[in-house]
Write a structure and sequence with these properties.
Elements (H helix, E strand, L loop, with lengths): L2 E6 L5 H13 L3 E6 L10 E3 L5 E3 L2 E2 H7 L7 E4 L3 H8 L2 H12 L3 E5 L2 H4 L39 E4 L2 E4 L5 H13 L1 H10 L4
Parallel strand pairs: 1-2, 1-6, 2-5, 6-7, 7-9
Antiparallel strand pairs: 3-4, 8-9
Helix pairs in contact: 1-6, 6-7
């Protein structure tokens, strides 16, 4: 079974997290939701989203990292939300894990603010075509990665090798279905598309 991890930090954009969780699970992919909290609340599984929707994660980041030390997931997902992305980017352990997954050829994905704010702080976007929430792309300059801007696109979502990025909440369904297609194939994604009455 293919596996995926979705990282939830306080302030995450709910639809950008729950759409991939839902569609990936419909596709038979084992999804683990991971709470990325501050050091004083690191054992708390409850994560409040940007619109005050609280989600109970499956595990904490610390436990997740122990469990997958020698068995990386096939896909990692970073939802956006301005505060959520900032909180993900503030977690050094997570950034190291994302780079490890990327280097191992795992599907490394982000949506909304997270491509710029989270991936922009790593080497993941180096020489990659990518997108993010309009206006957030300049955040990569905060980390000295101005070179990433030359590959920025205003497309709804962009797939370049094992990196998938998307613009924002309205792209959540397309983003999620792109992950399904890459991980388990067009036949499964088409079945899900029809069954869920997608446009």
């Amino acid at each position: 079974m293919k596996t995926a991890a979705v990282f939830l930090a306080p302030g995450f954009e709910e639809i950008e997290a729950l759409s991939p969780i839902d569609y990936l699970r419909r596709a038979g992919i084992g999804v683990t939701t991971v709470a990325v909290q501050s050091s004083d609340t690191k054992d708390n599984l409850v994560v409040a989203g940007a619109h005050k929707v609280s989600v109970i994660a499956d595990t904490t980041l610390q436990n997740y990292l122990k469990d997958c030390k020698d068995n990386l997931p096939d896909c990692v997902v970073c939802p956006g939300g301005s505060l959520g992305a900032d909180n993900l980017a503030a977690c050094t352990e997570l950034l190291e894990h994302l780079e490890k997954c990327y280097s191992a050829g795992k599907l490394t994905t982000a949506i909304c603010a997270s491509p710029a704010v989270v991936f922009g702080k790593t080497n993941i976007l180096k020489d990659k075509n990518w997108t993010c929430y309009p206006g957030m792309e300049s955040c990569v300059s905060n980390y000295g990665n101005d070179a990433y801007l030359s590959k920025y696109s205003n497309q709804i979502f962009v797939t370049d090798g094992n990196v998938v990025t998307a613009r924002g909440p309205g792209a959540s369904e397309q983003f999620a279905m792109e992950l399904v297609t890459i991980l388990v194939g067009k036949e499964t994604s088409e079945k899900i598309r029809k069954a869920s009455q997608q446009r």
